[in-house]
Design a protein that fits this description.
By secondary structure, the chain is α/β, with parallel strands linked by helices. It is 35% helix and 20% strand. It contains 19 helices and 25 strands. Strands 1, 2, 3, 4, 5, 6, 14, 15, 16, 17, 18 and 19 form a twelve-stranded mixed β-sheet that branches. Strands 20-22-23-21 form a four-stranded mixed β-sheet. A three-stranded antiparallel β-sheet has the order 7-12-13, covered by helices on one side. Helix 4 packs across helix 17 and helix 13 crosses helix 14. The protein is globular and about 70 Å long.
């Protein structure tokens, strides 16, 4: 029997008009701005005008990602559909996909199988134009910066100390490092430059943390773009760019409303990288979902050591949110990969490898329950090759930590396959919790970084390079030392070495650079080599994507 592809399943599902989805979500027509039949933006003024107690907040996170796959978005969507099947008033809040992964290796980010948000093609390709607006605002600032230098450089900006890069929402390694301004005096000032992918732009993080236009403009004005010859920071506000940038972003600031295959309302908005930024959908989308529903299911990027840590220590702190339950997604295949089994062999039963890989899952569980003091359930995204013995082993090890396991079969069965998980989540949401951050803001920068490294990664300590030490002193002197920390680290390991799978011990984290994201409101601590502009693989997914004469798209996944 041939399996249907994700896009085939999505295209064969009848969607409800977005007005009906809005009505189901409790969004009054006056807040709705339709983008065709099946997409709409929702005015964030709803938050100040709708008087209703906020619902419960459920975070979906996962073990460290592997080539064997985890299915976090699929689980998030299927869980919400499962909760609706047991009679709960629930909404979903997800990130928007970037075009880079869609045409590269990873594919889209609209879920999978029978647990998807639709229209899947639109969501993965352009959607409502949010990422284009972010890219335009980013590149307007870059143009105004270089124009200021060309027009006489009244601020005394040192071209060798410009930190603001251009961006494009595509994987293109050719643009990582460029020299521009060539061709003579009338064509600008020659300098080294480079491009990031749009989701790595600080404007993406700013958009996802801003509460309204006034807050957006204030954050944009604080963006640091470089330094003067005398070492003074230069901001977008100094260049008088924030007003025009906000004008480009005014519609992008409004969350997008779509639906799941089972017509559960879903907000899909924003998509910052989870290693260089905080990896969560917008605060506005999350808050609107919580205002309108009894339960909001949202997700955070990559594994819990990056996505959940930043969701909890950055997003929740800045937005004043308190989660009620955490779902930790894992697969037997991915755990066997963590135990040393090659990807091609992860479909075979191997209890020994599973036992070796389980510490990765268990460490994430302990972090959630013991560091953050939140109720947690492990969702095993079931594959047909999983054996009863493997599932029993995972369940036994989790129960030793006082955490239940629920099988998730939402990829194959949709909401029906998420009912068991939904019931456990509802149970956990009723339990009181003593949510605690991993660190307090008033301690020194180095101590905050060490707290994350020791408590979450279980490192022995942190090595700071001479450059990092110098930057910490400068940032402290400038008054940025009270900001939360955004760790830029490989997603594949608890350590800063992506080859160290499982739950490594006896290692140090090396921080080589620290920069301020003053608009977003956090400090980025860089470990290892973090790629802000991915490249395409030898056989990019773009080669399989096509459209026929009727406009029907194929090859998306």
């Amino acid at each position: 029997m041939a399996f249907k592809t994700d896009i085939e399943i999505a295209q064969q599902t009848s969607m409800l008009p977005i007005g009906q989805i809005a009505e189901k979500a409790g969004v009054d027509e006056k807040y709705l701005e339709q983008y065709g039949k099946y997409k709409a933006k929702v005015d964030y003024k709803l938050l100040s005008e709708v008087d209703r107690p906020d619902g419960k907040l459920i975070l979906v996170t996962a073990i460290n990602p592997t080539p064997a796959g985890e299915g976090k978005t699929t689980t998030t969507v299927g869980l919400a559909d499962g909760m609706r099947r047991i009679g709960k008033n629930v909404l979903v809040a997800l990130r928007e996909p970037s075009l880079g992964p869609v045409f590269g290796v990873k594919g889209g980010a609209a879920g999978g199988g029978y647990a998807q948000v639709v229209p899947m093609e639109d969501i993965n390709l352009h959607f409502t134009g949010d990422f284009h607006a972010i890219g335009a605002a980013n590149n307007l600032l870059a143009a105004m910066l270089d124009n200021h230098i060309y027009q006489g450089n009244a601020l005394g900006i040192d071209p060798r100390q410009i930190t603001w890069r251009r961006c494009v929402d595509m994987n293109d390694r050719q643009l990582r490092f460029v020299v521009d301004g060539l061709g003579g005096k009338v064509n600008g000032t020659p300098r080294e430059d480079g491009y990031d992918i749009t989701v790595a732009s600080e404007i993406m993080a700013v958009l996802c943390l801003a509460s309204d236009i006034a807050d957006l403009k204030a954050r944009l004005a604080r963006l640091v773009v470089g330094y003067t010859y005398s070492g003074k920071s230069v901001t977008a506000g100094d260049l008088k760019a924030q007003g025009a940038m906000a004008a480009l972003l005014k519609d992008a600031l409004k969350p997008n409303l779509v639906q799941t295959l089972e017509h559960t309302p879903a907000f899909v908005h924003g998509g910052p990288f989870a290693n260089i930024a905080h990896g969560c959908n917008s605060v506005t989308a999350t808050k609107i979902a919580m205002r309108l529903s009894d339960y909001t299911v949202t997700e955070a990027g990559f594994g819990a050591d990056l996505g959940a840590e930043k969701f909890l220590d950055i997003k929740c702190r800045i937005a004043g949110l308190k989660p009620d339950c955490v779902v930790l997604v894992a697969t037997a295949r991915a755990l066997k990969y963590n135990g040393g089994v090659p990807k091609a062999e992860t479909g075979n039963e191997n209890l020994e490898a599973l036992e070796k890989g389980l510490p990765n899952l268990l460490q994430h569980v302990q972090n959630i329950t013991q560091v953050y003091k939140l109720p947690c359930v492990v969702a095993i995204n079931r594959f047909p090759t999983d054996t009863e013995a493997e599932l029993a082993l995972i369940e036994r090890k989790c129960k030793e930590l006082g955490v239940n396991v629920a099988l998730s079969e939402v990829w194959a069965k949709g909401g029906e396959g998420g009912i068991a998980l939904a019931q456990e989540v509802v149970r956990l949401c009723e339990q009181p919790n003593d949510f605690t951050f991993a660190y307090e803001l008033d301690i020194p920068i180095k101590e905050k970084i060490e707290a994350i490294a020791k408590k979450i990664y279980h490192a022995d300590g942190v090595n700071f390079t001479a450059a990092a030490e110098k930057q910490i002193k400068t940032l402290t002197d400038l008054g940025f030392d009270k900001l939360p920390i955004c760790m830029a680290k490989t997603q594949y390991s608890f350590s800063d070495d992506q080859t160290k799978l499982g739950a490594p011990r006896g290692f140090q984290i090396t921080v080589r650079n620290i920069k301020v994201s003053a608009g977003a409101g956090f400090l980025v601590a860089l470990t290892g080599e973090i790629m802000t502009m991915p490249g395409l693989p030898k056989v990019p997914a773009a080669e399989r994507i096509d459209v026929d004469e009727t406009g029907k798209i194929s090859g998306l996944f």
